[in-house]
Amino acid sequence: MTVATAGRRPPAGPEPAGVDNRLVVGGATLTWRTLPLPVLPDPGAVLAHAAVHALTAARQHAVYGTELLLSAASRVDAAMRAELLDAGFTVSVLDDDGAHPSVPARPRAAEAGRLWLLTSGSTGRPKRVGHTLDTLTTVRADQPDRTWLCPYAPGTYAWWQVVTLSLTQPGQHLVVVEPDELDDWPTVAAAHGVDAASGTPTFWRRTLYRDAAALARVPLRQITLGGEPVDQAILDQLRDVFPAARISWIYASSEVGASIVVHDGQAGFPVAWLDRETPGRPTLSVMDDELVVTSPFHGAGLAGPVRTGDRVQVRDDRVLITGRLDSDEINVGGSKVSAGVVRGVLAEHPAVAWARVTGRRAPVLGRMVVAEVVLTPAEHRDTAEAALVRWCADRLPEYAVPRRIRVLTEIPVKETLKSDV
């Protein structure tokens, strides 16, 4: 990649503590220190065409404190580019030939140290959420040496979580996979000694479905899940493959940061954590079946209790996050059905690799429950629907049993590694 070397200003502070950590990206092995430092506009929105371009922008921000919004180029359409220009950002497409800027009609002064994230947009148009490198750095205690896999799209909250870990902690090396490497990431990971990996439940389900044997050859000691509801089925499947690994799930968002971390191998978090106030840690509560978080890692302007839009259910001594409020509840003839609960029942069936549950219009009842599933390769598709309906009927109220089950041949996944369940 040909870029100019930044030299317009003195560094905002010392080099990050992880500057000598190893980076494997685009087939090359580098370190944070050996990444080039591009000259980037300030304030700037950087649209990266490859992982290495995103990493150079991240290091440039860490060293110089520029105001930065970073995203994969593919996530920003023409309308969003126009919106960023109107907000005073110089929009630069960063590729192997350097930065290609578009200058705003009304330039403005930069806000030193500000980082902007684009939300995933799963419930509408992506929004900008303000952070700093400090609020995105939520792992501060010393960590055992790890080589982490980073499969996330550049600039997302999950991407920054892995990147800040490597930037700020010595011994936290990084292997970054591009979108066209995702289908074969276990081979890449095994070749470079990856022993820790973070991904969405869809990411892990898709890997298990495509080649569980290849996944088992990766020497994972730490497995992390987040970004979507985490059910017991995926936790148990990963435990079967990696009985000695620590398996964690994290609830995090651009708005409230990393708020829940669970290491006990169970879906949900303990009821005892609700309304527990601990200095420096998020406070969790429930209001009208919605998770509410008061977090020290919140985005700009989001201090105090933040309604997350995620629905929760208390079951025995656990609090389960089942899905988004605007899509999880299905009204079937006046009876309320949680799509997340039905999805969890389907996911527990040994033949189901992935499931999505939604509502569909129906006469008399108004809505009925329908599902899409991807089956494990050994399952005979001709008998799958009837068997799954019986499975659900034995475990759910009659009105919650899916009336239609469609079998897909591949687990759908978006660039965010989610399938919008």
TrEMBL record:
<dbReference type="InterPro" id="IPR000873">
    <property type="entry name" value="AMP-dep_synth/lig_dom"/>
</dbReference>
<feature type="domain" description="AMP-binding enzyme C-terminal">
    <location>
        <begin position="345"/>
        <end position="415"/>
    </location>
</feature>
<dbReference type="InterPro" id="IPR042099">
    <property type="entry name" value="ANL_N_sf"/>
</dbReference>
<comment type="similarity">
    <text>Belongs to the ATP-dependent AMP-binding enzyme family.</text>
</comment>
<keyword id="KW-0436">Ligase</keyword>
<dbReference type="Pfam" id="PF00501">
    <property type="entry name" value="AMP-binding"/>
</dbReference>
<dbReference type="GO" id="GO:0031956">
    <property type="term" value="F:medium-chain fatty acid-CoA ligase activity"/>
</dbReference>
<dbReference type="Pfam" id="PF13193">
    <property type="entry name" value="AMP-binding_C"/>
</dbReference>
<dbReference type="InterPro" id="IPR045851">
    <property type="entry name" value="AMP-bd_C_sf"/>
</dbReference>
<feature type="compositionally biased region" description="Low complexity">
    <location>
        <begin position="1"/>
        <end position="18"/>
    </location>
</feature>
<protein>
    <submittedName>
        <fullName>AMP-binding enzyme C-terminal domain-containing protein</fullName>
    </submittedName>
</protein>
<dbReference type="GO" id="GO:0006631">
    <property type="term" value="P:fatty acid metabolic process"/>
</dbReference>
<feature type="domain" description="AMP-dependent synthetase/ligase">
    <location>
        <begin position="101"/>
        <end position="283"/>
    </location>
</feature>
<feature type="region of interest" description="Disordered">
    <location>
        <begin position="1"/>
        <end position="20"/>
    </location>
</feature>
<dbReference type="InterPro" id="IPR025110">
    <property type="entry name" value="AMP-bd_C"/>
</dbReference>
